[in-house]
Task: structure prediction
Amino acid sequence: MQPRADVSPVRRRPAPPDLLQVLGERFGERFSTGDSDRQRHGRDDSPYDTTPPDCVVFAASVEEVAEVVRLCARHRVPIIAYGAGTSIEGHIMAVEGGVTVDLSRMNRVVALNAEDLTATVEAGVTRKQLNAALEGSGLFFSVDPGADATLGGMAATRASGSAAVRYGTMRENVVGLKVVTADGAVIRTGGRAKKSSAGYDLTRIFVGSEGTLGIITEVTVRLYPQPEAVSAAVCAFPDVAGAVDTVIRTIQRGVPIARAEVLDALSVAAVNRYSLTDLQERPTLFLEFHGTVSSVAEQAEAVQVVAREHGGLDFEWAIDPAARARLWDARHSAFPAILQLRPAARAFVTDACVPISRLAGCIAATIEETRTSSLMCPILGHVGDGNFHCIILADPNNPSEMAEAEQLNQRVMRRALESEGTCTGEHGVGMHKIPLLAEEFGEAGVDLMRRLKAAWDPLNILNPGKIVSMW
Amino acid sequence: MQPRADVSPVRRRPAPPDLLQVLGERFGERFSTGDSDRQRHGRDDSPYDTTPPDCVVFAASVEEVAEVVRLCARHRVPIIAYGAGTSIEGHIMAVEGGVTVDLSRMNRVVALNAEDLTATVEAGVTRKQLNAALEGSGLFFSVDPGADATLGGMAATRASGSAAVRYGTMRENVVGLKVVTADGAVIRTGGRAKKSSAGYDLTRIFVGSEGTLGIITEVTVRLYPQPEAVSAAVCAFPDVAGAVDTVIRTIQRGVPIARAEVLDALSVAAVNRYSLTDLQERPTLFLEFHGTVSSVAEQAEAVQVVAREHGGLDFEWAIDPAARARLWDARHSAFPAILQLRPAARAFVTDACVPISRLAGCIAATIEETRTSSLMCPILGHVGDGNFHCIILADPNNPSEMAEAEQLNQRVMRRALESEGTCTGEHGVGMHKIPLLAEEFGEAGVDLMRRLKAAWDPLNILNPGKIVSMW
Result:
């Protein structure tokens, strides 16, 4: 499926030969116009066709990023930041051509401030790299999207994950950023204090800006002390509704669940096959509790009472760290597992997020709709946040399947908007949700976004064609 | 002390007679040019001289606010939003003249969505009004600045309070806003979903924008289930450092304290006199624990162990709700209590916020400095957030006292910046911290703020002279 021209009008602005020459001389082996490098950087986990940049620069420092931005500004050529390429909304696609700056080699942990519960890392550090660096410190970083994304990419898409219900998303967990602006200046968006009322919230403006307002080169995040006790469990249910309602009622009673993920029977089957687990192939809750020994026991008891009221079967516990790690690895691998259900297909991942009282209804209506679809559509979700994904698998060589998948995606998004929710809880706008933003915020709201973009990136060189349409 | 012209250059833009006439005809008894109304709306809890607007409109709806904004835009006259007037940074001062729109009559609770743990209120609802409306629901709203501020004002200044250490500030607790923009359009910044990746974070851009980017007319906030058990305690210490270190060590161990406030001996004496309490007049921690019965007991035990290591004396407990309410009323009244120490004085309230590992050092250096000052300077703080206030009392008729107070304030702010902190943790920028922002974010960062302001308010009519200097 091509990026649709009607969605975000684009102007091809390829990097001219003299820009390519200057970049090549400056960056040597860290510059590439090779087909494989370009193809790899023009493809993410979205269902859209590869859209490669004209060249790739592997940056090693913030100064180098600023240098590339200034060169692109001089030539009015797009520049696209690239982390791990795990976006599922086409964020990294070079729809107007231009230069991709790959930040994955900027992967130093700059500072661990254990006493302040913060870490500062270069943008290319991945969430697993950060947690590995924290081993032995008694601290952890909480945001865990399925993929091993980079912290820069996670900040840029306002990512979340399974622990957001307790610890928040990147919105709550980014303390400050170092950013290269469209004119190649380097700014810091804040210090390391836990809170601040110092002017416009630059940090929160860049978090979720998808590379369109600046290029994030360094991220300071909050850390949390490892809880004294952790236990995890899975619990099967006769239907998805029972699993969803169990989480919602538990949260409404104030039980601070650390993780609460629902998978439908098809997702569980995919996980079993991919991760060699032997979970019952029914709608299933994956739960985790953090706290002291006694508070974890209390939380677990409270959830079990609610689960029984909603038809939940027995809890299977994973107490020791290895068993828990296997369980959550299986959950985090659900996306590749589901892709393996139909290896030649591409996935449209819906990302509706609604107030929790509306979640069960939204999921039920989505399930009803998928029953009449010819496509495989497993469902899973971060229930505690009101966020669920329907992963629609379609054959990219079959236009009617691709169209059906897109229609289904559109209906899920519209239902979210009708339910006082959002079309994207954690994946971002990319190219294809631009029209939805006008429904979500109104034309006046989108106009503010467009004016912000024009004020901060007047040449529209920073990842053009994403979030807002400027042409 | 006059608002200093060197800080934020202003251009007087008084409301012309024809604008006053149109407003008078349109709003009748809800329009005033009377001296007492104008004086009252030109004065907050800052140390600066009254700076009245040319008139006051008491708005009753978002449509009326939009109407006033459009009229002001047509005449290029400033418009200043006013809630409860409890700002301590001069936010509501009409430094260029213009129209103040008083939102205090917009005090309806629009919706209580108990199942979703959200409430939507008009901007003029105060935090106490909201919590009164929540009585019997089993829910509460957590953000509690000392004053009974309006939710609109709290959102506009990114306010926090004693419970932010556990529940976050307005940054984390505003779910969405209704806002009138500079051209009189009405927008919604988001739905009611707990999280969102839908484009630029309009909600977080308006939170903390101090009325300079739009006028907030409706606020949707997060609510929390009342914990099963609550207990509060006070604990005296031989010195402030012991009290501060106790909180920091406790947080670093992951104990989820709900409130942790430190008052120095002078603040406690002021509170005793004002609230008729009989606390020991020593540096004192005010603590509160939320959770189940057993987890509250565990938290309390954990803190007591740490407190003893830091010289803490016995805990005095306030278990029953009435005793707790008395304790926190006393704490929330600390500001008026301190003002009573020297009734003719005005207060310069410093608002440094630093990483918690730097807090003890910053407070110690500040205490050292106040020792050599001729002024009374009680200190209190939201220790868990790294935020403390030194309340410097100076005679407004004594220029050397006022200058000394301002110098002390400046030194506290600079020390915060040197400690990777911020010059304002929760009070905002107003007029007098504008030069500090350039130190905190650099010229390039302030330039982004200025470009945002120019893009969204090209006529500079929204609360001009605050946060950024546009002339």
